[in-house]
Amino acid sequence: LERQVHHHEKLATVGKIAAGVAHEIRNPLTSIKGFLQMMRHGLEQNGLQKEHSYTTVMLSEIERVNQLVGELLLLSKPRELRMEHLEMEELITVIAPLISSEAILHNIEFDMQLEPTPLVYADREMLKQVLWNLVKNAIEAMATETNGGKLTIRSTWQEREGLVRVEIKDSGPGIPHYLLDRIFDTFFTTKETGTGLGLPICQRIINDLGGKLQVTSKGFGTTVSVLMPGVKI
Ligand code: ADP
Ligand code: MG
């Protein structure tokens, strides 16, 4: 319990700081990006190949800052939820091509096993974001450590508990047991360019939607499950 209280205090503090600065970062960043794109165009026109290639790096670094700021904003000021009844199977099918192309890029086999389930009551975009964050973690785990592997997304209906379960399973190196209770901490990351914001954001969203996140990792591979109450209508 103490650990959890500490965690929430930390989230609240981060939230206040983030909300204060995120917009102030984003606005100048947008203008830097705009002028840089114009410059880039000019460099190309004048045949300045080397300088042109620098702008590629600059733009991708700007994108990274942009993404970080976006994550901080989401964590600090979650927008109003737009709740609707959703079919998990359909939602996963919609993001499947995106997952597939990212998997191919990293030499990862991608498999889907989708069972029809009762509907869930949730915010579509938020849920997509959660699944995408979890998939990204799975792919990143396999891309760096084992170079390739297998990603499986499964949806099932747990009738007894009344829960729709979506599993994101990878064949990566797994998570050491002594780190399992830290991975949801804000800013906890083991990656060189990680933000440590993905899982806290997922946790926050799923809690807000009335669901639960579960992580199991035993030596090899990791399975993260999203559990959402099934709705009977
Ligand atoms: P980030 O991805 O920026 O590091 P996250 O909050 O998404 O931040 O994840 C926190 C940490 O949890 C990761 O740095 C990694 O150590 C661990 N982790 C999360 N998902 C997995 C996974 N599928 N396999 C192995 N480790 C994982
Ligand atoms: Mg992540």
UniProtKB/TrEMBL annotation:
Swiss-Prot/TrEMBL catalytic activity: ATP + protein L-histidine = ADP + protein N-phospho-L-histidine
Covered range of the whole protein: 129 to 361 of 361
Annotated protein name in UniProt: histidine kinase
Molecular functions per Gene Ontology: ATP binding; phosphorelay sensor kinase activity
Annotated organism of origin: Tumebacillus permanentifrigoris
EC number: 2.7.13.3
Residue ranges occupied by any Histidine kinase domain in the UniProt entry: 20-232
Keywords of the record: ATP-binding, Kinase, Nucleotide-binding, Phosphoprotein, Transferase, Two-component regulatory system
Record's keyword annotation contains ATP-binding: yes
Domain of life of the organism encoding this protein: Bacteria
Keyword Cell division found: no
